[in-house]
Amino acid sequence: MTKYEAMYIIQPNCEEEKRKGLIEQLNGIFSTVTEVDEWGMRELAYEILKHTSGYYVLARVEATSEEVEEFERVCRIREDVIRFMIVREAE
Length: 91
Fold this sequence. Notes:
By secondary structure, this protein is α+β, with helices and mostly antiparallel strands. The protein has a single domain, classed as 2-Layer Sandwich (Alpha-Beta Plaits). Helix content is 29%, strand content 52%. The protein has helices spanning 16-28, 65-77; strands at residues 2-10, 32-48, 51-63, 81-88. It has a four-stranded antiparallel beta sheet, with helices on one face. Strand 2 and strand 3 form a beta hairpin. The longest helix is centred in the first third of the chain and has 13 residues, at 16-28. The two termini are 13 Å apart. 18% of the residues are buried. The mean pLDDT is 92.
């Protein structure tokens, strides 16, 4: 398995309970989550989908390529996720 960093931004108007469930769902896609760092609400560098702030989450994971594809698919479908990025960690 390969190590990745997955970062995603959740809409600022998402309720806390719903946000926690979304974070759990997205991190549950990966077989091994080594660290989850919730940065919290931050201002965006530029407006995204009429939002000027968002809830940032950074997760360090070990995953297969299929899990990465599933993560990307789910992030594209979920309206609560306004941006996401997943990159392989340098070795």
